Amino acid sequence: MTTLRALIVDDEEPARELLRTWLVKREEIDIVGEAGDGATALAQIREIHPDLVFLDVQMPDMNGFDVVAALAPAERPTIVFVTAYDQYAVKAFEVSACDYLLKPFDQDRLAVTVERVLSKAAPPADLQRLLALLHQTTASQVVVKVDGRHLFLRADDIEWIEASGKDVSVHMAASSLVVRETMTNLEARLDRSRFVRVHRSAIVNRTHVREAQPWFKGDYVLILRSGARVVSGRTYRGAVERLLKA
Fold first, then answer.
1. Left (φ > 0), alpha (ψ -120 to 50) or beta: where does 64 sit?
2. Is there a smaller number of Cβ atoms within 10 Å at the N or the C end of the chain?
3. H helix and E strand count, the chain
4. Is the whole-model pTM more than 0.90?
């Protein structure tokens, strides 16, 4: 019998515990480690060389995308992405060697994943393709989690996004939503032809920018159609300049 050495990665302990409880019942799986953040996961992958990683997508600081991107092809184990976000790319994963577990899932769904991985592990080329697909987002919607609910927002309605500590505020014309997510994680799901990061703490929807006024030292004040004013940052000057030339 083939036995796979598995690493569980999720920033929420209850999620790790649930996976652990179900996986220990599988004779084909040997759990060799757990990690609660991306940096620890990356270090453990390089240290213990697991065959399989159940990898949460949404984690602070270093998300699941970042972990895989940081690994050289020869270092990459088989990856099963675990997330609460159902984007259009999910369907592409359903016909792939690697799998995509959508929270909440049950033991039967996990059993399907284990069988898929055992029958055909994904080669590095497939993993690269799957990672690229996972970065794709729908151009018309953005999914955010607020107070335990998943809200499907129209991208056109979002004016700008602001980082505030460990939270992110999504500003729309009539309201703002506070999302418990890092700016980097949310940015990874945005349509980059529409949303432009202009500051470490600010992303604007280019269709809502009404005017750009020169500011200090080459920066700009972007005035949105609602009247909101967003100051750009030096690090993102190139993005702002490309926005002005569009």
1. alpha
2. N
3. 8, 15
4. no
